[in-house]
């Protein structure tokens, strides 16, 4: 890669595509707030609350599969635009739903959109970013997700006193989705995707555009060389040289969810109500602080990732999650009283948990799966990891309220903590460091074969 970069176009492309992350974050905040009002309006049981929240994960599994196929055939940009349209249709369907059935349909469509956007966004950014900025640029996706949360909770709080506020809360997601639908089509396509489909002249123009130099022969040659080593067949992912990468991606994808993050964020207002914040509006307001911590933690992670590397962030972040989950469980285990301060201890524990997650598993997982797979197999492998991620999210969100009934409020958080410990062990022994390596160098590191 040349030394002088045309960062402006790269940053604009990264910011626009990162709106996919903002949609993800906004939806998490929107449904976690809306469920309080939907629950009361439709008299939903804990099981039906779980089904409604989990509908997004169910749709996302299908979206992740379709996104993996279409991003290889249509390109990264058109795939981002297409699934943003599906997300928008789902948002409108949810907002205008006359009954639970149509609300569920809307939530599934939202999930289909998010299932593809959640991995095609970091995939696209990683393929246009220079090696020395790749980590921080991919982390923009997580920053946008955090911003989505920061936006969603104040909006939910501001609308909480209106009639059927959940309709407005869910429907407003169409605004950023519309910007992504149009904006991404004006950005350059991934040069690596163009080369893999033999659009060499277009690829050359894009590399010149984003690198600021006309001397691009070496970079194109490196990309073509690694492409010749892979057939791009799905079965190739099971080759002995690639099995470790596939195992790491799937394992981190599932463990990221089994440590409870999406469940805790989805149900944050509910958790705060259980801990003593009985008003829905106050519970949402307290959650705004958690969203702000999420955003600030992501800013810190962006500054650190290309300086200290991926492994240190993962290992330290997971330890922080384990510790905060232990304290969160203890907060619910101790006897409750009006003066016990349980509510505020819960808030602090949630903030530490979210901070640790953002610095580690949240950001680094999506970055790693955008880095560790060969170009011809990258979309397919990321699709598999994303299916595993959303499947695990479906299991945890659907079972959370039921598990509380089985294990108690304290037991469920301690269970997540034990899973966190096993995740730390896996990262320590298996996850490689990718800081400072080009995507082609990372690919070669898994071994060459024909």
Structure keywords:
globular; mainly alpha; Growth Hormone, Chain: A; 19 helices; 450 residues; 0% strand
Structure commentary:
The protein has 450 residues and is mostly helical. It has a single domain, classed as Up-down Bundle (Growth Hormone, Chain: A), CATH 1.20.1250. It is built from 19 helices and no strands. Helix 1 crosses helix 6 and helix 3 crosses helix 18. It is globular and about 65 Å long. It starts with 6 loop residues before the first helix and ends in a 5-residue tail after the last helix. The model has no long low-confidence stretch (mean pLDDT 86).
What does the secondary structure layout of this molecule look like, with pairings?
Layout: H1 7-17, H2 19-42, H3 46-73, H4 76-95, H5 100-128, H6 134-159, H7 165-171, H8 174-183, H9 191-196, H10 200-211, H11 217-228, H12 243-258, H13 261-266, H14 268-274, H15 280-308, H16 310-333, H17 342-371, H18 375-430, H19 439-445
